[in-house]
Amino acid sequence: MNYQKGIPPVAVVGGGWAGLACAVKLAEAGLPVHLYEAAKQLGGRARRVDWDGIAIDNGQHLLVGAYRETLSLLGMLGTQAFLERRPLELRVPGFRLRLPRLPAPLNLAAGLAFARGLRWRDKLAAARLMHYLKERAFRLPRDETAAVFLSRQQQPANLVDKLWGPICVAALNTPVETASAQVFCNVLRDSLAGERADSDLVLNRADLGLVLPDAAAAFVTGKGGRIATGCKVERVQRENGNWRLAGPDISYGRVVVAASPARLPELLAGLAGADRLLEQVSSLAWQPILTLWLRFAKPVRFPFPMLGLGGGQAPWAFERNDLHPGLVAIVVSAEGPHLAQPEEALREQYLDLLVAQLGPLPPLLDWKRIVEKRATFACVPHLRRPDNLTPLPGLYLAGDYTAGDYPATLEGAVRSGIKCARLIFMDES
After folding, report:
1. Most exposed residue of 121, 233, 309, 397, measured as fewest CB within 10 angstroms of its CB?
2. Residues 271 and 403 occupy one common structural domain
3. 192 and 92 fall within a common domain
4. pLDDT band at residue 311, thresholds of 50, 70 and 90?
5. Cα separation of 9 and 242, whole Å?
């Protein structure tokens, strides 16, 4: 559908996955879109990075089969060919869980029955927990930390250490000791307790720029929209019933703010009616993600593309020969002592863990450390996240930090952007 003449454009401030998802859906429906991104490239916290001429990712942003909105969006944009889909398999030292291609819930039952590194009491406790949650539609009577909830459900320490803890840190980017039990249960509901394919791991086999930002920008501009990178919006101001973007100095009837929540106090400063949502944003705490990129002289052979290394803070290694032969990414989620370690010492520690899993490695040619200090919000209990629909007419919020069932994931970002587009459609009708 091409843009209908006479319809005023919608402004989207921020070119991360939330802003891009919103812009694509608006453009698909025939609404004109002007997207502004302060950085020189699109993608936000899931973007392409140049490393001496090699396109890499700023981190490993894993998808799962339950991420229907994201996978549908990528299917529409024609980039699903860049994804590799595998049945869930978790491999860490002393533990292995693989879900077979059986109908749900038989796949989970069989996977637990044949899991290595779990005692029978662990397996029965895991099955008992999933049954308990299904009986209650995965809604808890009250939120609490995941650690307290799992203890209350008499989950053995070995099971928490091998299965529940790694899932919690990987999905919520928050340690089990402080993570929201309700959001953790939401993740279990939509993955392990969903359809068979919902638990699949979906790995990108091209840099993140190719997976969404490049295709989204081409789609929007192909529909007549505008994408402005390196164009910072300084403030959103109310003026004569419209919203004026200081910086570009253009006014719009509707604006979707999809910028980092850290920028909201600056962007919305002085706006009457914005106090509550700014208070909610100010209550958010943040968790980092560290990615160590290693480039070897030749490809490193993995038994599975994603491999747990064990050790402190549960690092995961990813084989990334798709980007360049010999590339390996090691990812460590959330806060921890690893962030204070000297870079060389951390590299040697993780190389030793990799050797322990894979045996002798090819010569290391180069390495790079990337830390996203504000990778996600800390997904703690009783967190009140701002809604996409603000009290200010014509102003919307998009981002993985907004209200929803999911933690700070790509699916959470995409869902929020699509929800903003749908709210605007409702205003149009």
Report:
1. 121
2. yes
3. yes
4. low
5. 12
User: Does position 1 have pLDDT exceeding 60, yes or no?
Assistant: no
Query: Could you tell me if 243 and 333 lie in one domain?
Result: no
Across the beta sheet with 250-252, the strand order is 235-239, 242-246, 250-252
**Is the pLDDT confidence value at 61 over 70?**
yes
Res 213 pLDDT > 70 = yes
Residue 215 and residue 264 in one domain: yes
| Beta carbons of 264 and 402 less than 8 angstroms apart | no
Residue 56, domain extent: 10-80+206-284+383-428
Domain boundary among the residues 173, 199, 225 is at 199
Q: Given this model, what pLDDT does residue 334 score?
A: 87
Q: Give yes or no: residues 262 and 406 share one domain.
A: yes
Residue 5 lies in a domain: no
Task: Name the pTM for this structure.
Answer: 0.95
The residue whose two tokens read 């989207």 is 12
How far is 423 from 413, CA to CA, in rounded Å?
16
Predicted local confidence at residue 5, as pLDDT:
56
Averaged pLDDT for residues 197-209: 96
Q: How many domains does the chain have?
A: 3
Rounded mean pLDDT of 204-227? 97
Q: pLDDT (tens digit, 9 = 90+) per residue, 369-406?
A: 999 999 999 999 999 999 999 999 999 999 999 999 99
> By the 8 A CB rule, do 366 and 292 touch?
no
Domain end call among 156, 171, 199:
199
> Using CA atoms, how far apart are residues 91 and 358, in angstroms rounded to an integer?
12
Would you say residue 27 lies in a domain? Answer: yes
* Strand order across the 33-37 sheet: 226-229, 33-37, 10-13, 254-257, 395-397
Work out whether the CA dihedral 29, 33, 35, 41 comes out positive or negative.
positive
And the tokens for 23?
């812009």
| The token pair that represents 80 in the structure block | 């699903």
* Torsion sign (Cα): 74, 79, 83, 87: positive
Q: Side-chain half-sphere of 236: how many Cα atoms within 13 Å? A: 29
Based on the fold, state whether residues 195 and 96 are members of the same structural domain. yes
Measured distance CA(106)–CA(205) in Å, rounded: 29
Min mean pLDDT across 3-7, 72-76, 358-362 is at: 3-7
- In this structure, are residues 389 and 396 in contact, taking their beta carbons and an 8 Å threshold? yes
